[in-house]
Amino acid sequence: MHIPENYLSPSTCAVLGAAMLPVWLMAVKKVRQEVPPEKLPLLGIGAAFSFLSMMFNIPLPGGTTGHAVGGTLLAVLFGPWSACLAVSLALFVQALFFGDGGILAFGANCFNMAFAMPFAGYAVYKALLRAFPERQLLAAGVGSYVGINLAAFFAAIEFGIQPMLFTDGAGHALYAPYPLWVSIPAMMIGHLTIFGLAEVVFTTAVLGYLQKAAPEIAKGRQSKAGPAVYGLLALLICGTPLGLLATGTAWGEWDAEELAEQDYLGSVLGYIPAGMEDGFSFEALFPDYAIEGMPETFGYILSAIIGTALLVLLFKLAASFLGHKTNYDAPAHEG
User: Start and end of every PDGLE domain (predicted)?
Assistant: First the structure.
């Protein structure tokens, strides 16, 4: 679901980035008001959960892959505004250091995965929890399924409108070449089935584990991570190489040469869209979570450690820079 560089036009990226700007400002304001500074490192660990979940690629018949995101899980644990900020920073680290998602498309990726997903998933979760107060895992699972599918739908729309709006003199698409009637089913089939199920499993498994091993954190009443949380983080880091078992590239994430050779519905595209060939280019430090000179598996694990450390560090620094604006009289978020 990470939209790469040059799949969306610069103007599309600008519109979605502009749409996210007030969301980010409000998210920072809400986090300053609602999250005590001493709890921000725990939110950083939550962001790391999201970062790591996206490294577990899952194959789908046909050669494509996908992954969970954990946006609704973070919304359940910390509230939707905190989840928005945490997933945004996870996406920022992925794009800047690992080339997973475009720099120009950062606003679009955040709109889909850091805004639409946690807010929609959390709304469904709260509605179900009001109807079935003893079924928190069920509510979180259904919310996560709705959240990831809404995010995938928005990504499909963003892909699909490109050939309607941006073509060259020969009628070739300048950016993402597949129209809505291709992009929507291509994105939704995987997310309505395997990838949506993966999001449900990840959300309910982590939430269920925290309810038993760290119940005060699951209820939002504890500010510091304990052995149970660090143990889960270590387990996820060590397990990330499982994501390497999935072969193929996620739909809509091919490089330009792969895209030209795509045979979709019996028709090879046969050209590289000009906007991709001549578009913005950015070389990440560790592209595809690979470390030069290291075996693929070790490089993947080291990338997981680097990403996790960066996110925890960012939120520790944020605890200093955001200042002490927390309203301690306001009710704390409780999952």
Answer: 228-321
